[in-house]
Amino acid sequence: xxxxxxxxxxxxxxxxxxxxxxxxxxxxxxxxxTCAACPITVKKALKKVPGVAEVTVDxxxxxxxxxxxxxxxxxEELAKATTEAGYPTTVKEIR
Length: 95
Ligand SMILES: [Cu+2]
Fold this sequence. Notes:
By secondary structure, the chain is an alpha+beta fold.
């Protein structure tokens, strides 16, 4: 009984993980992040874009990793969003 509960929990969790993996990921090269508040601005600009699921900004590396729905948005549009927020951005890597 308890074991089957664990199994059910495991499968529920793994299907959630699978759903997250279904999103495309892109790394953006973001220029001009000069202080600790900049990553917040960059993150906000990306989160506003429809289709964006997750954003991780690396201030030191000057990169932003974005999970997005390829049916709603593409990497170029993501780069445009942060460029318009004041941070000239190029697409570094699409995975
Ligand atoms: Cu700043």
